Amino acid sequence: MTAETLSQTILALFAERDAARVETPVLQPADPFLDMAGEDLRRRIFLTESETGEALCLRPEWTIPVCLDHIRNRADTPRRYAYMGEVFRQRREGGHEFLQAGIEDLGEPDAAAADARSVADAFALLARALPNQALSVTLGDQAVFEAVLGGFGLPRGWQRRLVRAFGAPDQLSAVLADLADPARRGLLSDGIGEQIASSDLKTIATLLESEMQAAGFSPHAGRTPEEIARRLLEKAELASFHLKPEALEALTIFLGIDVALERAVDALHAFGRGAGLDLDGALDGFARRAEAVAGFGLPQGAVRYDAAFGRPLDYYTGLVFEIAATGQPKPLAGGGRYDRLLTLLGAEAPIAGVGFSVWLDRVAALAGGERAQS
User: Fold this and answer.
1) Planar angle of CA 83, 307, 270, nearest 5 degrees
2) Which of 41, 122, 306, 324 could form a disulfide with 333 if both were Cys (CB 3.0 to 4.6 A apart)?
């Protein structure tokens, strides 16, 4: 398949899916990416400044620019946007400029249906571009992961640490090791931790303000005493929390769930019963999505649920997925749900969102291999 044929194939699918193609500037405000896109992406973007000193960057991905464009134009929802164009960031396999295509689905009230459609559209795009390749979908769910963490009674600080590590196996293993062994944490010494934990926010803030004034520091420069006190209380909470061994074992069992999607709902219900957790609220939406995915008729066994699977972007809130060609180590497409992103970017009211991106250079390389073999 030539580059022109691949482009025509993608544009035809966009038209069939009623997704209007959108263009966004290559030069983007940097702050949204620095604040919301995740550490993995933040350290690989290309930064510059405007004449007025505004931080700018070359477009490192499409989701945030599409959302900003939607907010700027005050567009109605639901609405589907399609895109195809360059993104710029350092890549582990080399290179810094490559093409992506995808669809962002904004404001659809039926989240399960929109999630399933996003998975199915990404799969259809790749199946048309690579008709001789067997494709597999790996699906995760951050909302289910968070429900499990909440069910174990973990403090919010520990939950945030685990959620930030979701989808990064080495980081997640390190956080779990810290959770299992207080001696590894190194957050606060025992004496200081106990003293802080036994005080309240107002008391600690007052003491800090007095100490700062005595040392000649203005309490209004940098972080306020209240902000420092809040952070110290969080550290004390993290340092003093002890997760029961049986709960840690159950969390490890959960992260080991990896089954075909048609078996995932039963597997999660069985886990919840065994761990003594009520996951019904989180699993209602999961079950509706699984049923909706099945309705698109993807090949039997092509979609798996991996409880430990996540993607390295901070704005995801629920579904996350990647699609790969069988036997190939790098994904060809990835996406997920980001219901909080548009509000954080400045939307006046919450707007649900889900979408996917396809790495066209990887698709083209495989398509070239198919031609060579034919």
Assistant:
1) 135
2) 122
Of 58, 53, 67, whose CA–CA distance to 27 is shortest? 58
Instruction: Name every residue whose Cβ is closer than 8 Å to that of residue 22 and which is 6 or more positions away in sequence.
Output: 66, 69, 81, 82, 83
Pairing of strands 258-260, 303-306: antiparallel
**What is the bridge-based pairing of β-strands 303-306 and 135-141?**
parallel
Q: Please give the pLDDT value at position 96.
A: 86
N-terminal to C-terminal alpha carbon distance within the chain: 11
Residue 34: partners with Cβ closer than 8 Å, 6 or more residues away? 42, 55
In the prediction, which pLDDT does 250 show?
93
Residue-level pLDDT at 316? 93
What pLDDT is attached to residue 238?
Answer: 63
pLDDT for 163: 86
- Distance, CA of 137 to CA of 77 (rounded, Å): 28
Angle between helical axes of 245-255 and 142-151 (0-180°, round to 10): 170
CA distances from 140 to 8, 245, 254, 337 (A): 31, 25, 12, 11
Instruction: Report pLDDT for 215.
Output: 65
Torsion of CA 191, 194, 200, 203, to 10 degrees: -20
Q: What is the CA radius of gyration of the chain?
A: 23
pLDDT in the model for residue 189: 43
Q: Which strands sit side by side in the sheet containing 27-29, from one edge to the other?
A: 27-29, 55-58, 47-49
Residue 29 contacts residue 47 (beta carbons within 8 Å): no
Low-confidence residues in the chain, pLDDT < 50? 187-195, 197-198, 219, 221, 371-374
